[in-house]
Amino acid sequence: MRWPWSSSSEEREEKASPSPNDVLSSVTDWSRYQDPRNVIPVIVLTAGAFFFSTFYRSYLKRVSQAINIAPTFWRKRSLFGRVTSVGDNDNFRLFHTPGGRLAGWEILPWRRVPTTRKQLAGKTVHIRLAGIDAPELPHFGRPAQPYSKEAMDFLTSYILHRRVRAYVHHRDQYDRAVATVYVRRWLIRRDVGLQMLKRGLATVFEANSGAEYGGMEEKYRSSERQAKSRRKGMWGGDLNKYESPMDFKKRMGPKHENPVDFKKGTGRITPPT
């Protein structure tokens, strides 16, 4: 029925508006959801979103500290990034840059590696080189072990501010990622721990249990024997007076780490090795 005061446009709008029954019928019409033109785009978008989310979490999500490394990551994956500081003769700090330059790191303005201690605080992974033990630097009133400075100088010049890849094995009691680390020197990929052993600046790590070599123990021990026979580094002195880093630490007694400096993670004070 058309009221005398109603306009023709209002009448057309009334006729065009669907009734509640029409809306309910449209929603419950399952044939619409079986139409490939509707189903296929939904499946493609859902699968694409799931794939991107999984890929991001696995390969592009940044790890800020060792405690953030997922359990499924250990012994299966690696961390690629830039060394921001060398804290001791066998450990350092790594700023994780997943995907490297292919993901825009150090190219895009918002993907730069921080350079100050304040910017780096809480954002670096503490790495402990697997399978080796280096001479001890002076700590908390304890004297330096012979060849500790040479070991520190070598490691600093070899990896500081360079991009490295760390194959992580496990997290130790000091929340460090124990890892086999590689760096490219003259386009050749080098095992950092192995290079220290070859130069007589480290020994193969000895422990009653829990020692981690990343499958390199035989090669590490062979390199240590060669360095010893060639009188390299710490093997160049009187072998009768030789003291391993492990024996030196036992003789000097336990360290007392500074928890504040350790949490900051950018200084040269480090937990026991």
Q: Estimate the helix proportion, in percent.
A: 25-40%
- Biggest sheet, spatial arrangement of strands: 1-2-3-6-5
Strand content: 15-25%
Task: Please tell me the overall pLDDT.
Answer: 83
State the secondary-structure class.
Answer: alpha+beta
Query: Are there runs of 5+ residues with pLDDT below 50, and where?
Result: 256-273
How many beta-strand segments? Answer: 8
- Please work out how many helical segments DSSP would assign: 9
How many strands, what sense, and barrel or not for the largest sheet? 5 strands, mixed, barrel
Question: Could you spell the SSE succession in H and E letters?
Answer: HHHEEHEEHEEEHEHHH
CA gyration radius, whole angstroms: 30 Å
Task: Report how far the terminal alpha carbons are from each other.
Answer: 92 Å
Q: What's the shape?
A: elongated
Describe this structure in words.
This protein has a five-stranded mixed β-barrel with strand order 1-2-3-6-5. The protein has a two-stranded antiparallel ribbon with strand order 4-8. The protein has 273 residues and is an alpha+beta fold. It is built from nine helices and eight strands.
